[in-house]
Amino acid sequence: MPQKPLVLDAPVPERRALTTEALQSEILEKLTYSVGKDPIVARPHDWLKATILTVRDRIIDQWMESSRETWRTSNKRVYYLSLEFLIGRLMRDAMSNIGVMEPVRAALKNFNVDLGDLINLEPDAALGNGGLGRLAACFMESMATVNIPAYGYGIRYVHGLFRQEMSEGWQVELPEDWLAHGNPWEFERRESSYEIGFGGHVEPVQEPDGTTRLEWRPAEHLLAVAFDTPIVGWRGKRVNTLRLWSAQPIDPILLDKFNAGDHIGALEESSRAAAVTRVLYPADSTPSGQELRLRQEFFFSSASLQDIVRRHMQAYGDLGSLSDKVAIQLNDTHPAISIAELMRILIDIHGMAWAPAWKLTKATFGYTNHTLLPEALETWPVGLLERMLPRQMQIIYAINAEVLGEARKMGGFTDSQIANLSLIDEHGSRRVRMGQLAFVGSHSINGVSALHSELLKKTLFSDLDRLYPERINNKTNGVTPRRWLLQCNPGLTRLISERIGPDFQDDFSLLAQLDKHADDPTFQDQFKAVKRANKVALAQVIKDRLGIVVSPDAMFDVQVKRIHEYKRQLLNVIEAVAQYSMIRSHPEKDWVPRVKVFAGKAAPGYWNAKLIIKLINDVAKVVNNDPAVRGLLKVVFLPNYNVSLAEQIIPAADLSEQISTAGMEASGTGNMKFMANGAITIGTLDGANVEMLEQVGPDNMVIFGLTADKVAEKRNRSEVPRSAIDASPALRQALEAISSGVFSPDDPNRYRDLIGGLYDHDWFMVARDFDAYAAAQRDIDELWNKPRKWYSMAIRNTAHVSWFSSDRTISQYAKEIWGVPVVGG
């Protein structure tokens, strides 16, 4: 059925008041008539839902106006395609951004309900894994803040990433049930449903004018149904939409099979559809796992593109202006199949010729690369794509022919370079390179830190950069300072407001004014008091969750992030073992008390990462219970790291561990969150650490280790790491203790292979950076013993963090890639 034209002057409800009285009245009304509970018997989750619905109504007012304004002005829209959106809890974020936190607190207090308890009760949306998904969430909030009309597109995972628990120190993956009791923030949009096909075949269709058109006839169909969540910007100036797709069967039950007694077979289609949006990153170590991953990526990409094209056609009537009104940003390679799918839509459905369709596609798409790790750049078996997406595979072959033709026409490429340019990897089993597809189908390819973008040109995409110069550019990541300073650290926010005034909340560049107060002893003492209060709160979390008592007067040394060998949690825990040995051997020394805090999830199929988690817990069990240590060193691993836990850990951190192997971390965003909250960074010259060093100065960070060039040089020389181990008694003793079973008496051989890898190849330079890292940690000890110096450095980190705001990052995307105006731009 054709959609009716928009009526932009239709009436709208009167805006709701933001006063305590109005909020109190409406919370009671929602509790009674939407939740169906009498206040006398209402439980905390009832009050939570009533409060969310009350706050949501006030957001909807601006949501509707934001949408109408975009339609009225025909502004260009940005569409951000990401397999992850790690949005965390939304209520506090929304209340803060529209300015009703205190009125809501007061309204609930009149019902003897504590707002803080309700905030902690809200479940985290399990829609992401780590930095990539959290970046997408920060970007959505910043796009609304700087007034960019935008949609985020992703998947409405029922379970998302797993919930992590510990069993005898081992990671155990359990389903995350964040949707078990519904999601009051979302709205189902039944009218925005699209059929998604898989399999089948491609047939030529003769047109009346004698031309031949190719038509894909899928063998299988399912339905993508939209669920919309409002994303509100700072001060509520704009509210954008996060649209997540849920997979549903075309026919929920095959009645003929059911009536014939095949009750399981009757629900087969329903089960197959449900699997697509059940979990984030299903294991792809089996052919069926690979197929499910591909289904997920095509499912949300196709649904999003159909939605974008439908909206554009509704507004403008033809697709010739698509790139003038639409900017689509691919967040990594997960949505890269969109390149082929948009070409199919333009050519097969809308009858566009190849050349203008290809030109339009490239002008519409931008691609953000997040990794230099070859294994993290997706590739798919050619046979799988030909079977599941036959028409898209034809288009990929045609794109590849065009790209290779351009390379041969330009000349100067060797056969091996031509092979590197190809979208099809012919080495071994033939596979489609999704990074290459995203590159050739986009007019802009950006890295996420200055170092990363340069390495993209030199390594990963060197031949493509030569063929298509000027496409690669840099957009250093940022984080939203609303969530990662104002909301998660209210004590520090109040202190800063008292010292330099509250205007920094609207212009974060004003934080630089703190620099002149960094050496003020009074301000340092106030800053230290805020930090200690945050540490007391985290110490209580550690006690409640782990039963471990830690002192808030110790240095909180924190490494929280996805567990991966290149992020080098192993280096950190080996140094902890060395430190443990020194404390026992030299009890007469004045050791700095430390609490080493770890958190993060390992991919279910990543054995070494899971083994590192077990090692951390094994070391913790020994160290924390050894009376000879006298509490000078504590090691804790907090399970189920998510946004809410990060908001408790980061404000309490004294030391931020950003110690990845140089040249392997694209950017990092945790480093920026710690910086904002006054932690001092110990790190390598990797990712955004390089730019952090430029912003805060070398006197306010502790940098150690090999540079990216030195890492590459050592790898190219195939240098044997054993000499570095033999030259370091502390390292050698720590490795021998771990590999011999000192920390795993129940299984003395548990870590033999993990440690043996450091002797054999040490790809991640753990052994070769150990001495530099240990020396840097002793420098940290000296700084801690000079509290005036320490807090001067900490304050300057907060003072110089404004450049790492996602508002700045998004403004650069808008001006340099998307071509859309921003507030103040």
Q: What structural category do the secondary elements indicate?
A: alpha/beta
Mean pLDDT: 94
CATH top level of one domain is Alpha Beta
Percent strand equals 5-15%
Biggest sheet, open or closed, and with what strands and sense? 9 strands, mixed
* Separation, N- and C-terminal Cα atoms: 41 Å
Q: Main sheet: which strands, in order across?
A: 5-8-9-2-1-10-11-15-16
CATH names the topology of one domain as Rossmann fold
Give a structural overview.
The chain is of the alpha/beta class. It has a domain at 481-805: 3-Layer(aba) Sandwich (Rossmann fold), CATH 3.40.50. It is built from 34 helices and 22 strands. The strands form 5 sheets. Strands 5-8-9-2-1-10-11-15-16 form a 9-stranded mixed β-sheet, sandwiched between helices. A 6-stranded parallel β-sheet has the order 19-18-17-20-21-22, sandwiched between helices. α2 crosses α5. The longest helix has 30 residues, at 44-73. The radius of gyration is 27 Å and the shape is globular. The two termini are 41 Å apart.
Summarize the structure.
The chain is an alpha/beta fold. The chain has a domain at 481-805: Glycogen Phosphorylase B (Rossmann fold, 3-Layer(aba) Sandwich), CATH 3.40.50.2000. It contains 34 helices and 22 strands.
